Amino acid sequence: MTGTTEPFGARLRRAMDERGPLCVGIDPHASLLAEWGLDDDVAGLERFSRTVVEAVADRVAVLKPQSAFFERFGSRGVAVLEKSVEEARSAGALVVMDAKRGDIGSTMAAYAESFLRKDAPLFSDALTVSPYLGYGSLKPAVDMARENGAGLFVLALTSNPEGGEVQHAVRADGRTVGATMLAHLAAENAREEPLGSFGAVVGATLGDLSSYDLGINGPLLAPGIGAQGATPADLPRVFGAVVRNVVPNVSRGVLRHGPDVLALRTAADRFADEVRTAVAAG
Ligand SMILES: O=C(O)c1cc(=O)[nH]c(=O)n1[C@@H]1O[C@H](COP(=O)(O)O)[C@@H](O)[C@H]1O
């Protein structure tokens, strides 16, 4: 931790307690731009992204821009991404940059500088990362996050059906690969209060996860609600005792209500209420 920089986990816990834990994704699919009556170009991208930020950044805990949809437009798309991150953060939302980076250690350090160094143009409160070059390859990102009060979300048990062939694979020590990633995160977050800064991505679509120890003392980003078929009511069944640490993500389930700001806001509020009710019951 540098100076008085408050760790991501503490900032996230407070935001979740104050605003509820919902994360809304900024996923400007070409099909959504068309549904919103926008052109599939940089101006359309900018209008889409600004509208989502205007609609929900003052009320949800987290916004998660999907970097690929911005990178599609090259440097001008990335400029829109920079602006969206800045606007979302100034409206009080935390930003999780969904860029799913993962590389050998020496180049991972450059990715970490791009997203997790406080003075970087794309600095975000947290970054999604892939540990499938080995968890240890993420060390430069872990270190950079710690120094800058940022966090990581490590892909552990993803929402897509193809993930199982890697994540459920059993290692020589009898543990699955996914369980091993969770154990690394638990070690990273040990003794952190009120919540560690190193989260796992665990799909809300996965059903019974009782064979996994999700008690990593860190946040669990749970995509899959809405378009992928999971609902807020599934959360207690999937996450059990750690449901209070879940940050459920909805992207298309909210975004399909645009371009009307009020309709987007109402959709996000409805998911937020359903999540609150499910977590309270869990
Ligand atoms: O890391 C992620 O955010 C992620 C991990 C995962 O396992 N599954 C998953 O869907 N996501 C992302 O979460 C978002 C889900 O979008 P919707 O299906 O439209 O709600 C997309 O941006 C995905 O890239």
Automatic annotation (TrEMBL):
SMART domains: OMPdecase
Record Gene3D superfamilies: Aldolase class I (3.20.20.70)
Catalytic activity of the protein: orotidine 5'-phosphate + H(+) = UMP + CO2
Catalytic residue list: 100
Cited SUPFAM superfamilies: Ribulose-phoshate binding barrel
Pfam families per the UniProt record, alphabetical: OMPdecase (PF00215)
Alphabetical list of HAMAP family matching this protein: OMPdecase_type2
Name this protein carries in UniProt: Orotidine 5'-phosphate decarboxylase
Organism: Streptomyces lancefieldiae
